[in-house]
Amino acid sequence: MTDADGAAEVVRALWERFEARDWEGAGRLLHPALVVEWPATAERFRAAADYLAMNRAYPEPWGHIRVLKVVSEGDRAAALVAIDAPGTGFRCAGFYHVVDGRIVHATELWVTEGGEQPPPERARWTTRA
């Protein structure tokens, strides 16, 4: 698999392995020197081992992970993922750089579904999802 046709497949496979809690399989998709940035909380993971350890240690039940969409161009891919946790839901928009079949850099933007109230001045144009 080349970067040009495989970035989307690598990213999709990562999330599928997270859903299966297949940490070893997920690790094979990550470069050891992986950097993952989470701008919302100003956190940065500077190694695949740290990113995997955090995911493995995250309190269960996570709920189910659904990959809603993955698009790619060359060695870059973007994914929209839903995590259906008990009592709440999360969305992740992630942007990934894949080299030689492994993710070397990611920026993930996490939100809690319905976690923020929209400004009242937009109410005349929108409906609640």
The count of β-strands is: 6
Would you identify the CATH architecture? Roll
Q: Could you name the CATH class?
A: Alpha Beta
Task: Report the end-to-end length measured between terminal Cα atoms.
Answer: 39 Å
CATH topology, anyone? Answer: Nuclear Transport Factor 2, Chain: A
Q: Tell me, what's the shape?
A: globular
Q: Largest sheet at a glance?
A: 6 strands, mixed
Radius of gyration: 16 Å
- H-E order: HHEEHEEEE
Low-confidence segments: none
Estimated structural class: alpha+beta
Could you tell me the mean pLDDT?
93
Commentary on this structure:
The protein has helices spanning 3-20, 23-27, 48-57, and strands spanning 30-38, 43-45, 64-73, 76-85, 88-99, 102-112. The model has no long low-confidence stretch (mean pLDDT 93). The chain has one domain: Nuclear Transport Factor 2, Chain: A (Roll). It is an alpha+beta fold.
What are the salient characteristics of this protein?
six-stranded mixed β-sheet; 3 helices; alpha+beta; single chain; 129 residues; Nuclear Transport Factor 2, Chain: A
